Amino acid sequence: MRKKFAILISLFLILTPFIINAQTDQVIESNTESTSFYSTYGSYWRAQTFEHGSDFVITRVRLNVSMVGSVTTDLIVEIRDTNADGTPGSTVITSGSIPHSSITSSFSLIYADLTNTTLNANTKYAIVMYTSGGDSSNYYKIARSGSDVYPNGTVYLSGNSGDTWNEYAYDFWFEVWGYYPSTNEPPTVSIYSVSPTSVYRGNSIHIKINATDPEGNLSAVKVNITNPSGSLVVTNGLADYNSSDGLYHYFYSPPASAELGAYDVTALAIDNESQTATDTLLDAFTVLDNPPSILSVEVPSSLSINETAHIKLAGKDFEDSNSSLTAIYNLTAPNGTLISQNIGMAYNSTDMLFHNTTIQLDTNGTWTLDFLLQDTDGGTDTAQATIEVFAGPSIQSLTSNPTNGTRPTTFELTATISNPSGPLSDLQVTYIVFAPDGTTFDSGNMTLIGDYFKANISVQAGDQVGFYDVNITAVDPNNQKDSKLFNGVFKVYNLDPLIYSIEIDPPSPERGDTVYFKINSTDPDGTSVVVKVKLIDPDGDEINLGQATLSSGLYTISWVPASNQELGEYNTIVTSTDVDGNSTVDNKTFILSNAKPVVVSITAEKTEIYVNASTLIYIRATDYEDQEGTLTVWVYALLDTLEKSKGIAEFSGNYYVWAFVPTEKGTYSFRVEAFDSQNAKGTKTAIGLVTAINPTSAGELPKLPTDTEKLKKGLIETLKSLWGRFIDFIFGNFGVSVLAGIVTNLIWLLFMVVGGI
User: Fold this and answer.
1) CA angle, 353 as apex, 350 and 357 as ends, to 5°?
2) What top-level class would CATH report for the domain 293-390?
3) What's the fold here for domain 498-592?
4) Which residues of 186-209 are buried (b: 16+ CB within 10 A; e: fewer)?
5) 3-state DSSP helix/strand/coil % of the chain, to nearest 5
6) How do residues 102-141 score in pLDDT, each as one tens digit?
7) Residue 570 CA, distance from chain mean position
8) Mind giving me the DSSP string for 637-667?
9) What does CATH list as the number for 598-693?
10) What does DSSP say about strands 394-401 and 409-418: parallel, antiparallel, or unpaired?
11) CA-closest candidate to residue 757, choices 722, 723, 706, 721
12) CA distance 474 to 493
């Protein structure tokens, strides 16, 4: 046994190279003798014919070439057919090239790779060699033999780019490389089993396949599955090989959307040379619908007579979404009478349950509910539940007094309830009040007053406006109860905010003024308000001032008109909004005027002059809108309120200057009127600014005080004033007479010194 095994191993080792090399690249035809060469360039083309006794795939050609000079175009190598006379033909079967950069001045063996092409046995082909560039000084040399040594072909030369060829009894050095196509037997395949033959969507089927290859070169086994409509649902699914049973295995799970019905299975085996085999099993398996499932039903275990029951059903389906399922139920009375049939239940996507509210259950005993859940494919599931109905309290009505009101208000609720099993005092009655947004506003117990149950509900400032719902629940000692929701029992109204006044300070502002808007606004409901102010300018454009701030009981916001602000009537729009979003709008207009120029100061170069002498009057004037120096400034000289002269002051540096010449003696006042580009006027008067005196009767001018005399006089007056204030301070605060005497002597000493100036 060991000997036979050794022989098999030896045969395998001997035959393996042949098997492996069946497609190994090798020399098919060649001539390796060379003693000379032919050159090629431009229109000078060269060719070598050859043929082989069996089919083969040509892959490349090797030549012995060199370069003379410099050729910058590649050497083209083509395999062509041949004409009847043996010359190269015009049909290019495959081609390649030798890059010019790989050819040197020395002969070397270089491959030209070709596109793999099958050549037929005993058929003459031509290797055609040429280059588009070069000249008589720059060309390729292709080595050749000195005689006709290759029996299956010969050399051809062309001087006109292959239009005509001449035969010569030589052979180029060449090697034709390729391989022989191998003979291959296809694999075999058969579907061994498919189980189960019926499968629900979402479950799995198991496909087993038996596949082999005569040469042992099986590459893959694939599976294709076709649905009842003829469409592929699995394309070339790869089966896995299991060495324990020698079979290929594939698993398929129909999705929720899979078509119902019979499916076909095709097995495909592929070997290493792409040979294939298939086997098809028609109606291999059937896909079935998964029926829906009722997971649970929720019903009250017991109810008071004449109550309705809110019922819920939870279900699911593998294929369909819950929203596409249909849930219905039948309601049977305690005596077996079918009261309601095929009542639909509504699906709620929030809790993903089916809901319905039954009719009033008006008979004592056990009520039966039979549920059915159905999917889109007709699959169904059923369930059953029961409700015990007992006689208990019954809520008839609920009223409110008043039915509506503004905040704050108290609403009195009155409920009418019956109790068949005993007195009303046995009942425990509770209420829940729901605000307009659905949240719980208030809850508590109702008090029995006479034959009615009552409760007071207080709504305060800031509570929601709108309709309030109330749920009443009455429970007897046997735990039988009735519960009812009453919608819109009472309504709370919201009052709009009030705007009492809009104050604009100053009422007639000018550009540059700080304008204050003060609004008195409140909310009658007691909530806070948001006050916003905007202006509409004379052109109709909107200026949004924003939200006013509450200060000292008024909502205040300010605005400073710019120097280029549009002049004219402005409309102040005030909007007051409460916390509920209700708004009140009011308005008030004002006129925005141009800012008048300001005469800052009026001074004189000389305050005492002679009649007919001249002094300069200096005026400092500014304007908010215009640049300094652009004003028109009039100066009026007044003597005892009478206008004696006037003129326009010229701007010079920081002042407007006007030359004044008095023609009469007396003390002159000066009134200045400054006008801007909008003709707005600003005024100022300097009283007694300049005194004019006449010369003496002898024609001599009186002596005017010198600058030193003026200084002396000013110092004396100043010191006297300071002295009086000092005496008042000393005696008023300290009462120290001695100190006052000393200081008095010092002051008079200073007067004497000054007097000697």
Assistant:
1) 110
2) mainly beta
3) Immunoglobulin-like (2.60.40)
4) bbebebbebeeeebebeeebebbb
5) 10, 55, 35
6) 999 999 999 999 999 999 999 999 999 999 999 999 999 9
7) 41
8) EEETTEEEEEEEEEEETTEEEEEE--SS-EE
9) 2.60.40.10
10) antiparallel
11) 706
12) 30
- Look at residue 232 in the predicted model and tell me its pLDDT: 97
Instruction: Judge contact between 496 and 578, C-beta under 8 A.
Output: yes
Q: Reduce the DSSP state of residue 746 to 3 states and report it.
A: helix
Please tell me the distance from the alpha carbon of residue 322 to that of residue 327, in angstroms, as a whole number.
Answer: 10
Provide CB contacts within 8 A for 676, sequence distance 6+: 594, 595, 596, 597, 623, 625, 626, 630, 631
First-residue to last-residue Cα distance in the chain:
157
Instruction: Please give the single-letter amino acid code of residue 114.
Output: L
Instruction: Supply the mean pLDDT for the chain.
Output: 89
pLDDT value at residue 728? 46
Task: Report how far residue 118's alpha carbon sits from residue 598's, in angstroms, rounded to the nearest whole number.
Answer: 110
CATH class of 26-179: mainly beta
Under 8 Å between Cβ of 489 and 413: yes
* Residue 520 phi, psi (nearest 5): -100, 110
pLDDT digits (tens, 9 = 90+) for 367-420: 999 999 999 989 999 999 999 887 778 899 999 999 999 999 999 999 999 988
Cβ atoms of 612 and 661 closer than 8 Å: yes
| Poorest-pLDDT segment among 16-30, 531-545, 600-614, 637-651 | 16-30
Q: To which residue do tokens 């996507």 refer?
A: 349
**Domain covering 394-493, topology:** Immunoglobulin-like (2.60.40)
Give residue 635's Cα distance to chain centre. 69
- The residue assigned the tokens 């070169």 is 217
Span 677-700, pLDDT tens digits:
889 999 999 999 999 999 864 444
| Own/partner pairs, 503-509, CB within 8 angstroms, 24+ separation | 503/554, 504/572, 504/588, 504/590, 507/590, 508/590, 508/591, 508/593, 509/561, 509/590, 509/592, 509/593
pTM: 0.38
| Domain 188-288 in this protein, CATH class | mainly beta
Peptide bond into 538 cis (omega under 30): no
Work out whether strand 447-449 and strand 365-374 pair parallel, antiparallel, or are unpaired. unpaired
Helix (H) or strand (E) holding 195: strand 188-195
251: Cα separation from own chain's centroid: 44
Whether the bond into 506 is cis, omega within 30 of 0: yes
Q: Which residues contact 320 (CB under 8 A, 6 or more apart)?
A: 256, 292, 375, 376, 377
Contact at 8 Å (CB) between 337 and 365? no
Q: Measured between alpha carbons, how far is 673 from 62 in angstroms, rounded to an integer?
A: 114
